[in-house]
Amino acid sequence: MPLDPNRDFTAFSLPEEHRELRASVRALAQDKIAPRAAEIDQSAEFPRDVYDVLVAAGLHAIDIPEEYGGQGGDALAVVLVIEEIARVCMSSALIPSVNKLGTLPLRIAADSDLLSRYLPQVASGEAMFSYCLSERESGSDAAAMKTRAVMDGDEWVLNGQKSWITNAGVSAYYTVLAVTDPDAGVQGISAFVVHADDPGVSFGAPERKLGIHGSPTREILFDHARIPGDRIVGAPGTGFRTAMTTLDHTRITIGAQAIGVAQGALDAAVAYAKEREQFGRPISDFQGIQFMLADMAMKLEAARTLVYTAAAKSERGDADLTFFGAAAKCFASDVAMEVTTDAVQVFGGYGYTKDYPVERFMRDAKITQIYEGTNQIQRIVMARQLLKG
Question: Active-site residue numbers?
């Protein structure tokens, strides 16, 4: 369903430059990405053509600073880009989302040499950057990771594996967390930049997933992988703090994905309810459907406002960002799962088929409740912020 690019989905007051950005991304997504979304889901292949479109428009990594050849977009701009792409294709929305996730640790902790070495390549579209934290036995308990990095001369030698890595095998570079001092707890974890073609680095088979089929998810394996000593991100032992600070900011992008896919589902449900007739009337005439649509829209607007607020706090570096980042991700993803499920219900039997996009929206929405920390973990994060001090 074509959308008016000037339609305002939210009462949240946006600056003019952000409204213009949203309109341009919405038009591009509708024209270039939406027609490919079902095929991307069906083929389960990374959408290289969509990546090229986003690169040409400067939307694949809009947050890279101008000094490194990027657009210098702020946190709200990143949210708007991801939201509008996710409205038509969640897999494609992971391109700007993961580029931020992979490169932000460098911007938080790396020296100028690493920044100038890698950020221009991401800004130009030459390379993508992924993030490697979770392992088979350390998902929610990230501090229990087993991957080791040992200094040998002027090189680091990595052994271990990372699981559920988004865009693994497509990205050229990876921010990898590894234990450098096993006796120091979280103070013994460091971050490194690893290249896909480094000796000793390999990838597992693509995961067979419920949704986001066009974004490859694989394990990355380290078998005596040797990397130069200058590829450590920050000082030894600071990696875990860098990783957690990164997630405070990037969980907001998961919220953006969530409100985007929920908006796509709501749009489809509203349009279908106006067209579908039963008992001689459009089903939009029935109060049961009206109440469902009203609840979907009400919760979505609340989620969007929370995500935009969290983005503003991210940009300012507010002290309560940890709470708001977790809250935005948690609430928006719960809303997305509810809204997409209700959209399938509005479509009835048709909603359960691939003839309409709502079943894809529902499958794609589920991951937003899981990655970058399950929503149970987000509630723990929020509670700790409330109870500390």
Answer: 372
